[in-house]
Design a protein that fits this description.
With 224 residues, the protein is mainly beta. It is built from four helices and 14 strands. Strands 1, 2, 3, 4, 5, 7 and 10 form a seven-stranded antiparallel β-sheet that branches. Strands 6, 8, 9, 11, 12, 13 and 14 form a seven-stranded antiparallel β-sheet that branches. It is globular and about 60 Å long.
Length: 224
């Protein structure tokens, strides 16, 4: 199995991948440098994936790195989260969160429902990276990540702090207050509601260096 490590210096973090005749995939433009006998290739995307990329921020082009050596990915003022997916798990990740994964992880594109996407402020077409299979996945984040487990439960979130959820979690938009009058007085916007049985990954607090550089909390993308 490929070895993923998070390294850091001078407030910057990056991912180091050690390969021993293995293959991993990474986000487009994620490469910083590589050492050893490693080759990179980019499989051609399906026509549907190309069309999806025209109306979303998710790119279907995920280069593959294969061989033996050390692979270093780009650094960020934010951070990274390494997770181990089980064979029977399926996850949906917010745009910009996917960073790298082992070869046994299958990547596809998931589309939210039109009205849910619209009320979430993401337009009518909101595509996300979906992953299933057994192996390691690396996510790019703005800060530390906390995992929540729901058992027929409910979490109400005022913002896009959930960066990943399993397929058993239903996502919707709702006002957190009991009445519309209370909603007007509270000053709160519509909240994101997650219900069901499964797991959630939440990143509610960015690293302070990222906040100074990036300003408001947005999707978990890297700072150029």
């Amino acid at each position: 199995m490929a070895k993923f490590e998070i390294e850091h210096t001078e407030g910057m973090r990056w991912v180091k991948v050690t390969l021993d005749n293995e293959m991993v995939r990474a986000e487009r433009r994620a490469l910083n440098h590589m050492i050893g006998d490693i080759t990179m290739d980019v499989p051609l995307p399906r026509p549907r994936d190309i069309l999806v990329s025209l109306v979303s921020d998710e790119s279907p082009l995920r280069p593959r790195y294969q061989g033996t050596g050390e692979l270093f990915l780009e650094s960020t003022l934010g951070g990274f989260h390494i997770m181990e997916m089980k064979e029977d798990e399926s996850w949906n990740f917010c745009p910009g969160a996917y960073w790298a994964s082992e070869s046994d992880i299958t990547l596809t594109i998931f589309r939210e429902r039109f009205l849910t996407s619209f009320w979430a402020g993401e337009g009518f077409f909101w595509y996300q990276t979906a992953a299933h299979g057994k192996g390691k996945v690396v996510l790019a984040t703005q800060g530390p990540v906390e995992e929540f487990t729901l058992k027929n439960g409910r979490i109400v979130v005022d913002g896009n702090y959930v960066i990943g959820r399993t397929s058993g979690i239903k996502f919707s938009i709702s006002r957190p207050e009991r009445t519309y009058f209370s909603h007007l007085l509270s000053g709160q916007g519509y909240a994101r509601v997650y219900e069901g049985t499964g797991k959630l990954l939440m990143c509610t607090t960015p690293y302070w260096r990222f906040r100074i550089k990036g300003g408001e909390f947005k999707d978990p993308i890297l700072v150029d």
